[in-house]
Design brief:
Elements lengths: L1 H26 L2 E7 L18 H9 L1 E3 L2 E2 L5 H10 L27 H7 L3 E7 L26 E5 L10 E3 L2 E2 L9 E3 L29 E2 L2 E2 L3 E3 L11 H15 L5 E6 L20 H23 L6 E7 L42 E4 L7 E3 L3 E2 L3 H9 L12 H4 L9 E6 L2 E6 L2 E4 L7 E2 L4 E2 L7 E4 L15 H15 L13
Parallel strand pairs: 1-12, 1-13, 2-15, 3-16, 4-5, 4-12
Antiparallel strand pairs: 2-14, 5-6, 6-7, 8-11, 9-10, 13-14, 17-18, 18-19, 19-22, 20-21
Helix pairs in contact: 5-6
Length: about 500
């Protein structure tokens, strides 16, 4: 009798624990990160754009938290993506820099990542879109399963481009396999030498429908010259103009197939990175040429994603985070009238610099959190970085995992607190600076002040630079000499985080 009663009590307790676990999993919010590519602080209506229309991004911003001090860690894409997924400053990893399309995976498979952390809490995890964090462990055979990759660092599902749209190979990969590849026509890629008989943008400009300006004159695919060489794999080659539809379709499918459980989707847009190839439906819609049209297309993708969540009854149970990997650039390797048709639009808004730059426009991003019914609309001046997402989302998911560079700022993300970071390190092509409070300090760096190819100020100067962003958001007045005590305070904080050793300054590699 006693044994029966004990067994019944134990079973009831186990059932209660199981039910509680099921209830916890069932109530976890879905998480969607929408990550634009080269979208500037001033490229969205909610951040001051008037000529460009971005109603869907604006819907998120006006219905959620619009951060005015939200940052990527870096002014180029690979480092920012590394930090977002790992919660680690990219300058701690020498490999976290702009990668060629054949680079090995730079995230250690033993390393903690956002998807790995969320999987441990019951999430299904997926990535759709641009990857650019390396694949494999060395020389890649594109005709076999490529590993390690997204699946090995925590993603249950991955549909990606290997690197960037302007780099070979111009194919999609699904869970490690080149999608649509036929064995009879193998794909080969080389970043040093061309394959015999294959045309290039340099030798065969007559075959190009898009003309290269600098750095993009190797293999031609779909009339567009790329960085790197490739041959074969014709059945798997993408059509650039259909890329956004392809990625959007996969993102919607992922949501629909996983709506019965909490999911994490990292939806990495390719727009408005070069080559800018909007679908014909969007050509001419902005009046600003392909770059503007690509932003309109990206905004439409955001709207379609919102509609899908709403149709599936998930909008009130989904946290959406929208941001960009680095600041804007106009001429980034192709002749596409981005400069000529800019008009009075300011991609960087009131900020100085852009992509590749240590000035504010390199890393201060559109940064929005939206959760219908949970987040109250507001503008937040709190200082926050994309590197903080891992620890903050861990708190949301009930995980004890924290990463030292990643601060737990969940209440800031959800808009219930304005107390963000005190300071952060900002990075641009192996150079770093400090943001602390309302101040930014840039150490002395040799090298050109401006990248002439893209016409962007890099932030290099032979002397220290110190700016008060509250009074001088455009960084026009260097206060290093007139505020020596503040400068020394900033240097001390910077060295405490970054170290005092000589930093390795590498040549700027154009993307």
């Amino acid at each position: 009798m006693k044994n029966t009663l004990l067994a019944t009590t134990c079973l009831a307790a186990i059932a209660a624990c199981t039910d509680a676990k099921k209830e916890t999993v069932a109530t976890l919010p879905n998480i969607v990160i929408v990550y634009a590519d080269d979208l500037g602080y001033g490229d969205a209506g909610a951040y001051g754009a008037t000529r460009l229309k971005t109603p869907n991004i604006d819907q998120l911003a006006n219905g959620g938290v619009r951060f005015t001090n939200g940052y990527s860690t870096s002014a180029t894409c690979t480092p920012s993506r590394y930090a977002l997924l790992t919660g680690v400053y990219p300058w701690r990893n020498e490999e976290a820099k702009i990668l060629p399309g054949s680079a090995p995976l730079i995230i250690d498979t033993a390393q903690m990542t956002v998807p790995k952390m969320l999987k441990e809490k019951g999430y299904h995890t997926g990535v759709v879109g641009k990857w650019h964090l390396g694949l494999g462990s060395g020389i890649v055979d594109w005709n076999k399963k490529i590993s390690p990759g997204p699946n090995e660092i925590g993603f249950d599902y991955a549909y990606i481009m290997a690197a960037t749209q302007d780099r070979t190979p111009t194919v999609f990969l699904e869970n490690g396999w080149v999608a649509g590849l036929e064995k009879e026509d193998p794909l080969v890629v080389d970043y040093e030498n061309n394959f015999e008989g294959e045309p290039t943008g340099l030798a065969n400009p007559e075959l190009c429908k898009m003309k290269w300006h600098h750095g993009h004159n190797n293999s031609i695919h779909n009339g567009i010259p790329r960085i790197g060489f490739q041959k074969g794999g014709k059945s798997a080659l993408w059509v650039d103009e259909d890329m956004s539809d392809t990625f959007l379709g996969k993102a919607k499918q992922y949501i629909q197939e996983n709506k019965g459980k909490p999911f994490f989707l990292y939806y990495a847009l390719q727009q408005p990175h070069v080559p800018r190839t909007p679908n014909q439906r969007f050509v001419g819609t902005s009046g600003m040429g392909p770059r503007g049209d690509a932003i309109v297309e990206a905004d439409w993708c955001v709207g379609e994603l919102i509609k899908t969540l709403e149709k599936e009854g998930l909008l009130e149970s989904t946290l959406i985070i929208f941001s960009s990997d680095n600041g804007p650039v106009l001429n980034d390797g192709y002749i596409d009238e981005a400069v000529e048709k800019l008009g009075d639009h300011k991609p960087a808004g009131p900020l100085r610099g852009g992509k590749y730059s240590l000035f504010e426009a390199g890393t201060r991003m559109p940064f929005i959190t939206y959760w219908k019914g949970r987040i109250e609309p507001k503008v937040s001046d709190a200082l926050i970085s994309q590197v903080d997402l891992l620890s903050s989302l861990a708190k949301l998911a009930g995980s004890e995992i924290r990463v030292s560079d990643s601060q737990e700022l969940l209440n800031v993300l959800l808009g219930s607190s304005q107390h963000g970071r005190e300071e952060m390190i900002l990075e641009a092509t192996s150079r770093t600076a400090l943001r602390k409070g309302e101040w930014v300090m840039i150490p002395p760096y040799s090298g050109p002040a401006t990248n002439q190819s893209v016409n962007i100020e890099l932030g290099n100067a032979p002397q220290y630079q110190l700016y008060n962003l509250k009074e001088d958001i455009g960084q026009q007045k260097n206060l290093a000499e007139s505020a020596p005590e503040k400068l020394q305070e900033m240097i001390k904080t910077y060295e405490g985080i970054r170290g005092t050793g000589t930093q390795k300054i590498e040549q700027l590699e154009l993307k």
